[in-house]
Write a structure and sequence with these properties.
Largest sheet: 2 strands, antiparallel
Strand order of the largest sheet: 1-2
Radius of gyration: 17 Å
Number of helices: 7
CATH architecture of one domain: Orthogonal Bundle
CATH topology of one domain: Arc Repressor Mutant, subunit A
Number of strands: 2
Structural class: mainly alpha
Mean pLDDT: 88
Order of helices and strands: HHHEEHHHH
CATH class of one domain: Mainly Alpha
Strand content: under 5%
């Protein structure tokens, strides 16, 4: 349902919100490793998320990196989809038809209509901070990487 870009953008934002602060920012490599994403792909996604401080903030220099402001944490999850130009996932036809509507529906239109409404509500009514809090409880995860044992 979601594109890889949207999936990694959601994961990156949650990971940064979990692990970084304005004082202790995360670098690109830390984010990529933390969400089990290729570094170059993560860089592209972070570039979209940081454009005009839409969702993720960044700072350059030796103490630079990525972090979320308190204001950004309150944003709805939909803001992440908008930042990576993937918000159409909650508005477009499930079959990808351009002219699907109530007047001219695709074969799945009526069934998907209710699901689409639920998706839109979920993305609009769930904040980034809510996802962080749920993940921090330990019942959820955001990486496909197997748990690694620390050396030492």
């Amino acid at each position: 349902m979601l594109s890889k870009t949207a999936e990694y953008a959601l994961r990156a934002t949650i990971y940064i919100a979990q692990k970084a602060t304005e004082e202790n920012k995360l670098g690109l490599e830390q984010v990529a490793e933390g969400i089990d994403s290729p570094k170059s792909f993560t860089a592209k996604i972070l570039q979209m998320l940081t454009q005009n401080d839409r969702v993720v903030s960044s700072a350059r220099g030796p103490r630079g990196g990525f972090y979320l402001t308190g204001k950004a944490r309150k944003l709805p999850v939909r803001a992440i989809l908008e930042a990576v130009e993937e918000e159409n996932v909650i508005t477009k036809c499930v079959l990808g038809l351009k002219e699907c509507s109530e007047v001219r529906p695709c074969p799945m239109h009526m069934q998907y209509k209710a699901i689409k409404k639920q998706l839109r509500q979920m993305f609009e009514n769930t904040s980034i901070q809510q996802l962080v809090e749920e993940s921090n409880k330990g019942a959820f995860f955001i990486s496909n990487a197997k748990t690694r044992k620390k050396k030492g």
